[in-house]
Protein backbone atom coordinates (compact mmCIF):
# COMPACT_ATOMS: atom_id res chain seq x y z
CA UNK A 1 0.00 0.00 0.00
CA UNK A 2 3.02 2.21 -0.23
CA UNK A 3 3.15 2.82 3.52
CA UNK A 4 6.51 3.72 4.98
CA UNK A 5 7.90 1.00 7.22
CA UNK A 6 10.16 3.41 9.11
CA UNK A 7 7.93 3.15 12.17
CA UNK A 8 10.48 4.44 14.65
CA UNK A 9 10.37 7.97 13.25
CA UNK A 10 6.75 8.47 14.24
CA UNK A 11 6.32 11.32 16.76
CA UNK A 12 3.83 9.29 18.81
CA UNK A 13 6.64 7.15 20.24
CA UNK A 14 8.98 8.66 22.85
CA UNK A 15 10.42 5.44 24.19
CA UNK A 16 13.89 6.72 25.07
CA UNK A 17 12.64 9.31 27.55
CA UNK A 18 10.32 6.95 29.42
CA UNK A 19 7.85 9.82 29.75
CA UNK A 20 5.50 8.89 26.92
CA UNK A 21 2.07 7.59 27.94
CA UNK A 22 2.28 5.09 25.08
CA UNK A 23 3.24 1.47 25.74
CA UNK A 24 6.50 0.46 23.98
CA UNK A 25 4.84 -1.56 21.22
CA UNK A 26 7.68 -1.38 18.71
CA UNK A 27 10.37 -2.09 21.30
CA UNK A 28 8.57 -5.05 22.86
CA UNK A 29 7.35 -6.57 19.59
CA UNK A 30 10.53 -5.64 17.70
CA UNK A 31 10.91 -9.08 16.15
CA UNK A 32 7.43 -8.93 14.61
CA UNK A 33 8.17 -5.53 13.04
CA UNK A 34 11.66 -6.69 11.95
CA UNK A 35 10.15 -9.73 10.23
CA UNK A 36 8.05 -7.36 8.11
CA UNK A 37 11.03 -5.12 7.32
CA UNK A 38 13.32 -8.05 6.45
CA UNK A 39 10.68 -9.75 4.35
CA UNK A 40 10.61 -12.81 6.63
CA UNK A 41 6.92 -12.41 7.16
CA UNK A 42 4.21 -11.59 4.68
CA UNK A 43 2.81 -8.07 4.80
CA UNK A 44 -0.26 -7.75 6.96
CA UNK A 45 -2.95 -9.62 5.07
CA UNK A 46 -5.81 -7.42 6.15
CA UNK A 47 -5.83 -4.72 3.51
CA UNK A 48 -6.83 -1.21 4.49
CA UNK A 49 -9.12 -1.87 7.44
CA UNK A 50 -10.99 1.39 6.98
CA UNK A 51 -12.22 0.49 3.49
CA UNK A 52 -15.52 -0.86 4.77
CA UNK A 53 -19.04 0.50 4.60
CA UNK A 54 -20.09 2.77 7.48
CA UNK A 55 -23.49 2.15 9.05
CA UNK A 56 -25.64 3.27 11.94
CA UNK A 57 -26.66 0.61 14.41
CA UNK A 58 -30.38 0.15 15.22
CA UNK A 59 -31.23 3.11 17.48
CA UNK A 60 -33.61 2.44 20.38
CA UNK A 61 -35.11 5.17 22.58
CA UNK A 62 -35.42 3.71 26.08
CA UNK A 63 -37.77 6.54 27.06
CA UNK A 64 -40.47 4.33 25.52
CA UNK A 65 -40.10 1.98 28.49
CA UNK A 66 -41.68 4.73 30.63
CA UNK A 67 -44.69 5.12 28.33
CA UNK A 68 -47.98 3.30 27.95
CA UNK A 69 -47.99 -0.48 27.63
CA UNK A 70 -48.10 -0.34 23.83
CA UNK A 71 -44.93 1.79 23.77
CA UNK A 72 -43.19 -0.40 26.35
CA UNK A 73 -43.86 -3.58 24.39
CA UNK A 74 -42.76 -1.96 21.13
CA UNK A 75 -39.47 -0.91 22.73
CA UNK A 76 -38.87 -4.43 24.10
CA UNK A 77 -39.66 -5.91 20.69
CA UNK A 78 -37.04 -3.62 19.07
CA UNK A 79 -34.42 -4.66 21.65
CA UNK A 80 -35.05 -8.37 21.02
CA UNK A 81 -35.16 -7.90 17.22
CA UNK A 82 -31.84 -6.03 17.13
CA UNK A 83 -30.27 -8.69 19.38
CA UNK A 84 -31.42 -11.42 16.99
CA UNK A 85 -30.57 -9.72 13.72
CA UNK A 86 -27.54 -7.58 14.57
CA UNK A 87 -26.23 -8.67 17.97
CA UNK A 88 -25.55 -4.93 18.40
CA UNK A 89 -27.74 -1.87 18.96
CA UNK A 90 -27.47 1.61 20.45
CA UNK A 91 -29.67 3.23 23.06
CA UNK A 92 -30.52 6.85 23.86
CA UNK A 93 -32.39 8.23 26.90
CA UNK A 94 -30.68 5.41 28.75
CA UNK A 95 -30.74 7.04 32.17
CA UNK A 96 -26.99 7.61 32.47
CA UNK A 97 -26.48 11.34 32.91
CA UNK A 98 -24.26 13.30 30.54
CA UNK A 99 -22.41 14.55 33.62
CA UNK A 100 -21.40 11.03 34.72
CA UNK A 101 -20.30 10.08 31.20
CA UNK A 102 -18.27 13.29 30.81
CA UNK A 103 -16.62 12.89 34.23
CA UNK A 104 -15.77 9.27 33.49
CA UNK A 105 -14.13 10.22 30.20
CA UNK A 106 -12.16 13.04 31.84
CA UNK A 107 -10.87 10.76 34.63
CA UNK A 108 -10.04 8.06 32.11
CA UNK A 109 -7.99 10.42 29.95
CA UNK A 110 -6.17 11.72 33.04
CA UNK A 111 -5.30 8.14 34.05
CA UNK A 112 -4.06 7.06 30.62
CA UNK A 113 -1.99 10.21 30.16
CA UNK A 114 0.31 9.13 32.99
CA UNK A 115 3.74 7.95 31.80
CA UNK A 116 3.73 4.28 30.81
CA UNK A 117 6.03 3.16 33.65
CA UNK A 118 3.70 4.79 36.19
CA UNK A 119 0.68 2.90 34.86
CA UNK A 120 2.64 -0.34 35.09
CA UNK A 121 3.66 0.24 38.69
CA UNK A 122 1.08 2.59 40.24
CA UNK A 123 0.31 1.18 43.70
CA UNK A 124 -2.00 4.11 44.48
CA UNK A 125 -4.67 2.84 42.09
CA UNK A 126 -5.42 -0.17 44.35
CA UNK A 127 -6.68 -2.23 41.41
CA UNK A 128 -6.18 -6.01 41.38
CA UNK A 129 -2.82 -7.24 40.13
CA UNK A 130 -2.83 -7.54 36.35
CA UNK A 131 -5.57 -4.95 35.83
CA UNK A 132 -3.37 -2.87 33.52
CA UNK A 133 -2.93 -4.60 30.17
CA UNK A 134 -1.49 -3.63 26.81
CA UNK A 135 -0.59 -5.26 23.52
CA UNK A 136 -0.99 -9.01 23.07
CA UNK A 137 1.53 -11.10 25.04
CA UNK A 138 0.74 -14.23 22.96
CA UNK A 139 1.20 -12.50 19.56
CA UNK A 140 3.43 -14.36 17.10
CA UNK A 141 2.69 -12.03 14.15
CA UNK A 142 1.39 -8.49 13.69
CA UNK A 143 -2.10 -9.78 12.81
CA UNK A 144 -2.36 -10.96 16.42
CA UNK A 145 -1.19 -7.69 18.00
CA UNK A 146 -3.71 -5.28 19.53
CA UNK A 147 -2.41 -1.69 19.49
CA UNK A 148 -4.14 -0.65 22.71
CA UNK A 149 -3.90 -0.42 26.48
CA UNK A 150 -6.59 -0.98 29.09
CA UNK A 151 -7.46 -1.15 32.76
CA UNK A 152 -9.64 -4.26 33.29
CA UNK A 153 -11.17 -3.65 36.71
CA UNK A 154 -13.46 -5.99 38.71
CA UNK A 155 -16.39 -4.05 40.19
CA UNK A 156 -15.32 -5.22 43.65
CA UNK A 157 -12.09 -3.22 43.22
CA UNK A 158 -14.32 -0.17 42.82
CA UNK A 159 -17.12 -0.77 45.35
CA UNK A 160 -14.77 -2.03 48.11
CA UNK A 161 -12.16 0.64 47.54
CA UNK A 162 -10.95 2.74 50.44
CA UNK A 163 -9.55 5.17 47.88
CA UNK A 164 -11.75 8.27 47.86
CA UNK A 165 -10.12 9.82 44.81
CA UNK A 166 -12.09 11.49 42.04
CA UNK A 167 -11.31 8.52 39.76
CA UNK A 168 -12.62 5.99 42.28
CA UNK A 169 -15.88 7.83 43.04
CA UNK A 170 -16.54 8.51 39.33
CA UNK A 171 -15.91 4.85 38.43
CA UNK A 172 -18.32 3.75 41.15
CA UNK A 173 -21.07 6.07 39.88
CA UNK A 174 -20.47 4.95 36.31
CA UNK A 175 -20.39 1.23 37.14
CA UNK A 176 -23.49 1.38 39.35
CA UNK A 177 -25.62 3.09 36.71
CA UNK A 178 -24.39 0.86 33.87
CA UNK A 179 -24.97 -2.25 35.99
CA UNK A 180 -28.62 -1.26 36.47
CA UNK A 181 -29.03 -0.67 32.75
CA UNK A 182 -27.41 -4.03 31.93
CA UNK A 183 -29.77 -5.88 34.28
CA UNK A 184 -32.78 -4.05 32.83
CA UNK A 185 -31.81 -5.08 29.28
CA UNK A 186 -31.05 -8.68 30.33
CA UNK A 187 -34.47 -8.90 32.00
CA UNK A 188 -36.19 -7.63 28.85
CA UNK A 189 -34.30 -10.08 26.63
CA UNK A 190 -35.14 -13.02 28.89
CA UNK A 191 -38.81 -11.97 29.05
CA UNK A 192 -38.95 -11.91 25.25
CA UNK A 193 -37.77 -15.53 25.36
CA UNK A 194 -40.67 -16.31 27.70
CA UNK A 195 -38.70 -16.31 30.96
CA UNK A 196 -39.43 -13.97 33.86
CA UNK A 197 -36.69 -15.30 36.11
CA UNK A 198 -34.21 -13.71 38.50
CA UNK A 199 -31.42 -15.69 36.84
CA UNK A 200 -29.33 -12.65 35.85
CA UNK A 201 -29.84 -10.86 39.18
CA UNK A 202 -28.77 -14.00 41.04
CA UNK A 203 -25.76 -14.91 38.89
CA UNK A 204 -24.36 -11.55 37.66
CA UNK A 205 -23.26 -9.83 40.86
CA UNK A 206 -21.01 -6.83 41.52
CA UNK A 207 -18.36 -9.38 42.51
CA UNK A 208 -18.45 -10.97 39.04
CA UNK A 209 -18.81 -8.01 36.63
CA UNK A 210 -16.07 -5.84 35.12
CA UNK A 211 -15.34 -2.36 33.89
CA UNK A 212 -12.73 -1.93 31.17
CA UNK A 213 -11.23 1.44 30.30
CA UNK A 214 -9.57 1.41 26.86
CA UNK A 215 -7.13 3.69 25.10
CA UNK A 216 -6.08 3.18 21.49
CA UNK A 217 -2.98 5.33 20.85
CA UNK A 218 -2.48 6.87 17.41
CA UNK A 219 -0.75 4.19 15.35
CA UNK A 220 2.02 4.84 12.78
CA UNK A 221 0.91 1.96 10.55
CA UNK A 222 -2.83 2.58 10.78
CA UNK A 223 -5.12 1.53 9.23
CA UNK A 224 -3.37 -1.82 8.76
CA UNK A 225 -3.14 -2.52 12.49
CA UNK A 226 -5.83 -3.69 14.89
CA UNK A 227 -6.55 -1.66 18.00
CA UNK A 228 -8.36 -4.79 19.18
CA UNK A 229 -8.29 -8.10 17.33
CA UNK A 230 -11.53 -9.59 15.94
CA UNK A 231 -13.37 -11.33 18.78
CA UNK A 232 -16.69 -11.96 20.46
CA UNK A 233 -17.32 -11.02 24.10
CA UNK A 234 -17.18 -13.74 26.79
CA UNK A 235 -20.10 -12.41 28.83
CA UNK A 236 -23.90 -12.03 28.73
CA UNK A 237 -23.89 -8.49 27.38
CA UNK A 238 -21.62 -5.47 27.08
CA UNK A 239 -22.39 -1.76 27.33
CA UNK A 240 -19.91 0.54 25.59
CA UNK A 241 -19.40 4.28 25.90
CA UNK A 242 -17.08 5.46 23.11
CA UNK A 243 -15.78 8.81 21.93
CA UNK A 244 -16.38 10.41 18.53
CA UNK A 245 -13.23 9.07 16.82
CA UNK A 246 -14.68 5.82 15.52
CA UNK A 247 -12.90 2.57 14.74
CA UNK A 248 -15.40 -0.02 16.00
CA UNK A 249 -16.31 -2.51 13.26
CA UNK A 250 -18.54 -5.61 13.29
CA UNK A 251 -19.61 -8.44 11.01
CA UNK A 252 -22.99 -8.04 9.34
CA UNK A 253 -24.23 -10.43 6.63
CA UNK A 254 -20.76 -11.92 6.29
CA UNK A 255 -18.87 -8.65 5.78
CA UNK A 256 -17.22 -6.08 8.02
CA UNK A 257 -19.00 -2.76 8.55
CA UNK A 258 -17.87 0.33 10.44
CA UNK A 259 -20.05 1.73 13.24
CA UNK A 260 -20.76 5.44 12.96
CA UNK A 261 -20.17 7.06 16.39
CA UNK A 262 -23.19 8.65 18.08
CA UNK A 263 -22.15 10.87 21.03
CA UNK A 264 -25.64 10.64 22.58
CA UNK A 265 -25.84 6.84 22.55
CA UNK A 266 -24.47 3.86 24.41
CA UNK A 267 -23.70 0.74 22.37
CA UNK A 268 -25.02 -2.62 23.55
CA UNK A 269 -23.79 -5.96 22.24
CA UNK A 270 -24.77 -9.54 23.00
CA UNK A 271 -22.06 -11.80 24.45
CA UNK A 272 -21.34 -15.50 23.99
CA UNK A 273 -23.16 -16.52 27.17
CA UNK A 274 -26.44 -14.91 26.07
CA UNK A 275 -26.16 -16.62 22.69
CA UNK A 276 -25.75 -19.97 24.47
CA UNK A 277 -28.52 -19.24 27.00
CA UNK A 278 -30.94 -18.18 24.24
CA UNK A 279 -30.05 -21.32 22.23
CA UNK A 280 -28.65 -19.22 19.40
CA UNK A 281 -31.60 -16.80 19.14
CA UNK A 282 -29.59 -13.76 20.29
CA UNK A 283 -26.34 -13.32 18.38
CA UNK A 284 -22.86 -12.75 19.77
CA UNK A 285 -21.24 -11.03 16.80
CA UNK A 286 -17.56 -10.78 15.93
CA UNK A 287 -16.21 -7.24 16.21
CA UNK A 288 -12.88 -5.42 16.23
CA UNK A 289 -11.32 -1.99 16.60
CA UNK A 290 -9.06 -0.47 13.94
CA UNK A 291 -6.48 2.16 14.78
CA UNK A 292 -6.24 5.76 13.66
CA UNK A 293 -2.98 7.23 12.38
CA UNK A 294 -3.54 10.74 13.74
CA UNK A 295 -5.86 10.41 16.75
CA UNK A 296 -6.09 8.35 19.90
CA UNK A 297 -9.45 6.80 20.82
CA UNK A 298 -11.04 6.21 24.23
CA UNK A 299 -13.86 3.93 25.28
CA UNK A 300 -15.20 2.33 28.44
CA UNK A 301 -17.06 -0.98 28.58
CA UNK A 302 -19.18 -2.68 31.23
CA UNK A 303 -19.29 -6.50 31.10
CA UNK A 304 -22.26 -8.36 32.60
CA UNK A 305 -20.64 -11.61 33.75
CA UNK A 306 -21.76 -14.45 36.07
CA UNK A 307 -19.73 -16.18 38.77
CA UNK A 308 -17.23 -18.77 37.52
CA UNK A 309 -19.34 -21.61 38.93
CA UNK A 310 -22.51 -20.54 37.11
CA UNK A 311 -23.81 -23.22 34.76
CA UNK A 312 -24.72 -21.87 31.33
CA UNK A 313 -27.44 -23.86 29.64
CA UNK A 314 -29.93 -23.13 26.89
CA UNK A 315 -33.34 -21.92 28.02
CA UNK A 316 -35.15 -24.48 25.86
CA UNK A 317 -34.54 -27.86 24.24
CA UNK A 318 -33.26 -29.31 21.99
CA UNK A 319 -30.13 -27.40 22.88
CA UNK A 320 -27.56 -26.26 20.33
CA UNK A 321 -24.90 -26.04 23.04
CA UNK A 322 -23.92 -28.43 25.80
CA UNK A 323 -24.03 -27.23 29.38
CA UNK A 324 -20.86 -25.60 30.68
CA UNK A 325 -19.70 -23.43 33.55
CA UNK A 326 -18.35 -19.96 32.99
CA UNK A 327 -15.04 -21.18 34.45
CA UNK A 328 -14.87 -23.97 31.85
CA UNK A 329 -15.62 -21.48 29.07
CA UNK A 330 -12.94 -19.03 30.22
CA UNK A 331 -10.34 -21.78 30.57
CA UNK A 332 -11.07 -23.06 27.06
CA UNK A 333 -10.76 -19.54 25.62
CA UNK A 334 -7.41 -19.04 27.37
CA UNK A 335 -6.11 -22.41 26.13
CA UNK A 336 -7.12 -21.62 22.54
CA UNK A 337 -5.55 -18.15 22.61
CA UNK A 338 -2.33 -19.66 23.93
CA UNK A 339 -2.35 -22.44 21.32
CA UNK A 340 -3.68 -20.68 18.21
CA UNK A 341 -3.27 -16.96 18.96
CA UNK A 342 -7.03 -16.34 18.83
CA UNK A 343 -10.26 -17.27 20.60
CA UNK A 344 -12.46 -20.07 19.23
CA UNK A 345 -15.36 -19.54 21.66
CA UNK A 346 -18.82 -21.07 21.40
CA UNK A 347 -18.14 -23.56 18.55
CA UNK A 348 -16.17 -25.51 21.17
CA UNK A 349 -19.40 -26.11 23.08
CA UNK A 350 -21.74 -27.21 20.29
CA UNK A 351 -23.67 -30.41 20.99
CA UNK A 352 -22.07 -33.20 19.01
CA UNK A 353 -24.26 -34.62 16.25
CA UNK A 354 -22.35 -37.92 16.24
How would you characterize this protein structure?
By secondary structure, the chain is an alpha+beta fold. The chain contains ten helices and 15 strands. The strands form three sheets. The protein has an eight-stranded mixed β-sheet. Strand 9 (248-252) and strand 10 form a beta hairpin. Helix 4 packs across helix 7.
Cα-atom radius of gyration: 20 Å
Which oligomeric state applies? single chain
The helix/strand series, from N terminus to C terminus, equals HHEEHEHHEEHHHEEEEEEHEEEEH
Low-confidence parts = 1-17
User: Considering DSSP H and I runs of 4 or more, what fraction of the residues is helical?
Assistant: 25-40%
Cross-sheet strand order for the largest sheet: 2-3-11-8-13-6-5-4
The counted number of beta strands is: 15
